[in-house]
Amino acid sequence: MNEADGAGVAGVGRVLVVVPTYNEADNVTVIVDRIRRSVPAVEVLVVDDDSPDGTGALADRMARADGRVHVLHRAGKQGLGAAYVAGFGWAADRGYDAVVEMDADGSHAPEELPRLLEAARDADVVIGSRWTAGGRVVNWPRRRQLLSRGGNLYTRVALGMPLSDATGGFRVYRVPALRRLDLESVASQGYSFQVELSWRAHRAGLRTVEVPITFAERERGASKMSPVIIGEALWRVTLWSVFDRRPASGRGGGRDQRSRWP
Ligand SMILES: Nc1nc2c(ncn2[C@@H]2O[C@H](COP(=O)(O)OP(=O)(O)OP(=O)(O)O)[C@@H](O)[C@H]2O)c(=O)[nH]1
Ligand SMILES: [Mg+2]
């Protein structure tokens, strides 16, 4: 599958991989190269928030050398959520059929993208999942694992949403499905953005599929994780659980490898 023939990825169409970057000069070239090599049919959009370390200029250089690489420059650090919303809008305006979310730091392996795209043939949303059967994390300190598992458990219980990894950021969205999620009104900035989109997809009745991935700790550069980002996810999930939750009846799936619901 996935071979470039001008029409994009078989069964999915034109795919744009959106890579948000903030101070990823040590990673951006490597990750874009790996994406292009792993699935030559996709295009890549680096969304850079004017990184002081020159990430944007490195991305520009790649874009000049490869017509399938693009760069969206934003004025300053405005958070992961805002970067993705801008990237998704860029894709929708240009007629792409699907967008992929992927971190620049190597935690999400481009070599696993073909499996996610294959699942997208038959889904609106595909989530690369660390915590479903077959999923793995490599080199993550125990406290990060506990935080991720605990956050996902809380999300699952509070929202009644049958996902193993609602905070994961390696995903595929079909663009027509994304249009139903009213992205302009998304306020989440950090991890909460991933949960919010899962929650909106769930409430909109989209078909979500989880596929197992191997997630690796970043090797270079600094994490942007902070107590503020964790806190944001916590209070937003709590608010949604109080004000937004709908009855859990009639959903299929479970927490296993490919849970899905109507
Ligand atoms: N454009 C943009 N990208 C961001 C921003 N914050 C984080 N990113 C990027 O989003 C991706 C995920 O951020 P990370 O720092 O890896 O955060 P994380 O994966 O939650 O934390 P670690 O697991 O510790 O690496 C990376 O590619 C970052 O460069 C932001 O404000 N703007
Ligand atoms: Mg990371």
TrEMBL record:
What InterPro entries does UniProt report for this protein, alphabetically?
DPM1-like, Glyco_trans_2-like, Nucleotide-diphossugar_trans
Residues of the signal sequence? none
Q: What is the lineage of its organism?
A: Bacteria, Bacillati, Actinomycetota, Actinomycetes, Micromonosporales
Q: Which UniProt keywords apply?
A: Glycosyltransferase, Transferase
* Similarity comment text for this entry: Belongs to the glycosyltransferase 2 family.
Recorded protein name is: Polyprenol monophosphomannose synthase
Q: Which residues form the Glycosyltransferase 2-like domain?
A: 17-180
